[in-house]
Amino acid sequence: MRTKEDVINQGPCVVVAGGGTAGHIEPALALADAVMRARPDARVVALGTQRGLEGRIVPARGYQLEMIPPVPMPRKPTMDLLKLPLNVRRAIKQTRAVLDRVGADVVVGFGGYVALPAYLAARGRTPIVVHEANARAGLANKVGARYAAKVAAAVPDSGLNNAEVIGIPLRASISELDRQALRDEARQFFGLHPHAPTLLVFGGSQGAGSINNAVAPLASEFARAGIGVLHAHGPKHSLAVQQIPGAPPYVPVSYLERMDLAYAAADAVLCRSGAMTVAEVSAVGLPAVYVPLPIGNGEQAFNCRPVVTAGGAIMIPDAELNPEKVKETLLPLLTNPRRLGAMGAAAQSTGHGSAADVLAKMVLDVVGK
């Protein structure tokens, strides 16, 4: 725990709780970057668990990572449900010890099983700020919002009372991306045709089997139409695609380390509609065909609905996704530059490129008070 002298000589300590999936981690790290831009004397500490992606992502971005026990919420009455109170108490105790040791001045939660123990450990001791990325708030953020000094949300009607709508914090490499300026470099980086209309396909960090199966069989159709494809199929999947000599290539990759270059290379996107994905694709002004993941309470469909309503995207239910549907939807789109431009502008009009800086100011204001 910090002494009074430490508090005087150091900037604020901001603890972010957003582990588990990239959809929770990336907004937390985008906020961390924005806090450091606003207050270079600040310290940012991330909370995480051994089971999430944060063990790889957070240290690589240069931030301190403190591990705490996860508190997953069982969806069905099982033995795990009976163990829940004990697991919660243990997680709160260990998380509270971390907050004391690092001298937390504020806890910023982004939902999920890392945020819940952080909220409960900070309650009544350390100010809390909650950010909800999804169109429908999850249980952790509903709990955190009850004790929060400030609540922010990506979209209206998230289910959190008095939430300020600010969008989703995005890393600067995305929010400030100039697709046109990077286009040649991006096409060369991935081995794509320098001028052909190009489709970017991905299904999250692990890929999506239904998307892979609907798109890969169309490789020759895309090639004959003069369309290139960059397809991230996921590390657990593989693709065998037919290449046509002299036609724009179909480039399969397991994972996209450089999403900024992937967006810069593309003219349209076919992907899932996680909240983070929708925010990024809209911010960079790409037309999209969204295929919501059919799980949970249907939040992925809610995530992309505002962009679809604005004319910046098309939504295809996962159950209706097949090669014929992809062909009839994407081939006419990718060969119509005017429609691509109109959809891209409509998508970008729904974005919030400054959300990270807005949330950083909100967080630092809470510390100041």
TrEMBL record:
Spans through the membrane: none
Keyword Membrane: yes
Entry keyword annotation includes Glycosyltransferase: yes
Organism: Kibdelosporangium persicum
Name of the protein in question: UDP-N-acetylglucosamine--N-acetylmuramyl-(pentapeptide) pyrophosphoryl-undecaprenol N-acetylglucosamine transferase
Pathway(s) served: Cell wall biogenesis; peptidoglycan biosynthesis
GO molecular function term, any single one: transferase activity
Location of this chain's protein in the cell: Cell membrane
